Amino acid sequence: MTHETRTGTVISGDELAAILSALDNPHRLRILAALKVGGRNYVSRLAREIGISRPLLHLHLNKLEAAGLVTSQLELSADGKALNYFEVADFRVELTPQSIAEAAATLSDKPERQGG
């Protein structure tokens, strides 16, 4: 989880790595853009709008949701179909040398020391 410092919210190294990994794909950038511009949307419609298959969209949405960039909510339509709606989460990530250094200090998978 993030924590507060005198300069504002500091994101953990693991969270930053997950966010950067999630954003390192053109499809996921398009998904975020489509949800931001068009608002919350369900998987089938979003897949048609972006022009990718539903299974591929699900993979990308799972990665975005795991990184905390989108949220989902399962709802029933009037005809009883389950629709999984996604929307962009409220997030802000500021990348500066200082914020990266602070995040890196909290990484859980620190490399082992080498050399000797």
Please give a structural write-up.
With 116 residues, the chain is an alpha+beta fold. It is built from five helices and five strands; from the N terminus they run E-E-H-H-E-H-H-E-E-H. It has one domain (3-104): Winged helix-like DNA-binding domain superfamily/Winged helix DNA-binding domain (Arc Repressor Mutant, subunit A, Orthogonal Bundle), CATH 1.10.10.10. 46% of the residues lie in helices and 19% in strands. Strands 3-5-4 form a three-stranded antiparallel beta sheet. Strands 1-2 form a two-stranded antiparallel ribbon. A hairpin with a 5-residue loop joins strand 4 and strand 5. Helix 1 (13-23) runs antiparallel to helix 4. Residues 1-7 have low confidence and may be disordered.
Mean pLDDT: 88
CATH superfamily: Winged helix-like DNA-binding domain superfamily/Winged helix DNA-binding domain
Q: How big a fraction of the residues is strand?
A: 15-25%
CATH class: Mainly Alpha
What is the helix fraction of residues, given as a range? 40-55%
Helix/sheet category: alpha+beta
